[in-house]
């Protein structure tokens, strides 16, 4: 069997507006939830009614102004796809306006045109860890059913505007993260109870399905998917209680995919809601809306974890509470490295849904050192990505239909969890320090040339 990936495989990288653009409140942009967590999605929520700069995300890597330079570098690597997000607050600054902000629309026109110049296919996320802050203060976030209409108005606006430029879309980034960070995910107070969180998630799932229908209607040749945080768990031991706990924990995030890919709530969630006295307001129209299902499954994968019935073994991570796997090494940030988990996850999702899969985030956050001659030898990143891509290739040999691979952070960006620049993911180094100092100059790392060769050979150079 050929060592190559499919000929139409999409190679590229993934970025998010709130982690790269900067240009805080420029050209009519409104306040977002991301602006109100300047120290990362798990940091304190800050009152941003004042407009002074507060944190790295306000400037980020200045992609808003430097995108032509960055896209040229992506093209040099050979990207056929770039995953980006539209900042909802650039299009509707408050989220509830009748008419969009024209300067925001024009910015993304220019961005997509620049990508087209190099033959780079856009994969666009509608809501990536941000939403208009006004929708929280005025309406109470996704706990309010009115947000379904606001989101679908936004979706309809951008589908109509960019229907000739964008054919691949995603609705909500890592939609299952709302269970772990409700402010970032659904705009709720962090002290919200399960009833409130799951009701807000329900509204978001309905909004996602309505956006899918709009996309199908407005851009018939398009493909639109969901996006999951691939939080795969293994049993810590073969003890039956650990195996069952693991099954339940995986249900906790897979149910988002079940609803979006199958069009209804699975029976295990009905049991969960009953056991936890959760009574959702689900209308007949909601049930009809949910039947409009996604075309493909997209997901992020950084690490796996273990699950056990013994809660005393859990450790607090910077994203999720988890039980470490004793057989795996970890990154500087404590994220366990499990390339085989990528193959397992791909097979699990494909067997479950029989829909094409798209790996839209995968990468290694690490501290990079610029040598005296200006070079950056990030062999650790090359090894991480090589080993994961080898497992992607194995999954394709297994018969899994994989559309593409967009590595997380092809250029250094501000991390979501703690708003750090020291946690670098890129093939391209950005001269920026945590205190905001630096030239913002871009430097090619060793991994830049490695990924370039992987793309040019369509995966043949992987070891």
SSE inventory with pairings:
Blueprint: E1 10-14, H1 17-20, H2 63-77, E2 81-85, H3 88-91, H4 102-117, E3 121-127, H5 134-139, H6 146-161, E4 168-172, H7 182-186, H8 194-218, E5 223-229, E6 233-235, H9 240-262, H10 267-275, H11 284-290, E7 296-300, E8 305-307, E9 315-316, E10 321-322, H12 339-353, E11 357-361, H13 379-397, E12 402-408, E13 428-430, E14 442-444, H14 446-456
Helix pairs in contact: 2-4, 6-8, 8-11, 12-13
Summarize the structure in words:
- The active site is at residue 361.
- Keywords: Glycosidase, Hydrolase.
- Pfam families: Glyco_hydro_1 (PF00232).
- It comes from Orbus sasakiae.
- The protein has helices at 17-20, 63-77, 88-91, 102-117, 134-139, 146-161, 182-186, 194-218, 240-262, 267-275, 284-290, 339-353, 379-397, 446-456, and strands spanning 10-14, 81-85, 121-127, 168-172, 223-229, 233-235, 296-300, 305-307, 315-316, 321-322, 357-361, 402-408, 428-430, 442-444.
- The protein has 463 residues and is an alpha/beta fold.
- The protein has a single domain, classed as TIM Barrel (Alpha-Beta Barrel), CATH 3.20.20.
- The strands form four sheets. It has an eight-stranded parallel barrel, surrounded by five helices. The protein has a two-stranded parallel sheet with strand order 6-8.
- The model has no long low-confidence stretch (mean pLDDT 95).
């Amino acid at each position: 069997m050929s060592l190559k990936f499919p000929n139409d495989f999409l190679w590229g990288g993934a970025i998010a507006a709130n982690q790269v653009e900067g240009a805080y409140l420029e050209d009519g942009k409104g306040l977002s939830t991301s602006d109100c967590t300047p120290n990362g999605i798990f940091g304190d929520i800050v009152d941003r009614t004042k407009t002074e700069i507060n944190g790295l995300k306000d400037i980020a890597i200045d992609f808003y102004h430097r995108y032509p330079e960055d896209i040229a570098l992506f093209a040099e690597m050979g990207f056929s796809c770039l995953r980006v997000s539209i900042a909802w607050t650039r299009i509707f600054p408050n989220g509830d306006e009748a008419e969009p902000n024209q300067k925001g629309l024009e910015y993304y026109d220019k961005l997509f045109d620049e990508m087209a110049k190099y033959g780079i296919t856009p994969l666009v996320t509608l809501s990536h860890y941000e939403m208009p802050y006004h929708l929280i203060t005025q309406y109470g976030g996704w706990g309010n059913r009115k947000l379904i209409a606001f989101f679908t108005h936004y979706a309809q606006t951008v589908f109509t505007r960019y229907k000739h430029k964008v054919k691949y879309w995603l609705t909500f980034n890592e939609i299952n993260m709302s269970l772990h960070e409700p402010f970032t995910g659904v705009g709720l107070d962090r002290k919200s109870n399960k009833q409130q969180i799951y009701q807000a998630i329900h509204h978001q799932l309905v909004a996602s399905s309505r956006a899918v229908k709009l996309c199908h209607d407005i851009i018939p040749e398009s493909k639109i998917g969901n996006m999951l945080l691939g939080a795969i768990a293994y049993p810590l031991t073969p003890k039956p209680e650990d195996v069952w706990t693991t099954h339940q924990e995986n249900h906790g995030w897979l149910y988002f995919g079940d609803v979006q890919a199958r069009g209804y709530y699975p029976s295990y969630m009905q049991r969960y809601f009953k056991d936890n006295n959760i009574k959702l307001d689900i209308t007949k129209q909601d049930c009809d809306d949910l039947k409009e299902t996604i075309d493909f499954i997209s997901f992020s994968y950084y690490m796996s974890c273990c699950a056990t019935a013994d809660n005393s073994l859990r450790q607090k991570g910077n994203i999720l509470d988890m039980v470490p796997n004793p057989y795996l090494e970890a990154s500087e940030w404590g994220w366990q490295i499990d390339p085989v988990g990528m193959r397992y996850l791909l097979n699990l999702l494909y067997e479950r849904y029989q829909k094409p899969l798209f790996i839209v985030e995968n990468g290694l956050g690490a501290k990079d050192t610029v040598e005296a001659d200006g070079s950056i030898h990030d062999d650790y990143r090359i090894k991480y990505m090589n080993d994961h891509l080898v497992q992607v290739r194995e999954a394709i040999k297994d018969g899994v239909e994989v559309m593409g691979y967009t590595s997380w952070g092809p250029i250094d960006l501000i991390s979501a969890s703690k708003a750090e620049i020291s946690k670098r993911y890129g093939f391209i180094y950005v001269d920026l320090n945590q205190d905001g100092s630096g030239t913002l100059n871009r430097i090619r790392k060793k991994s830049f040339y490695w990924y370039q060769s992987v793309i040019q050979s369509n995966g043949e150079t992987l070891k």
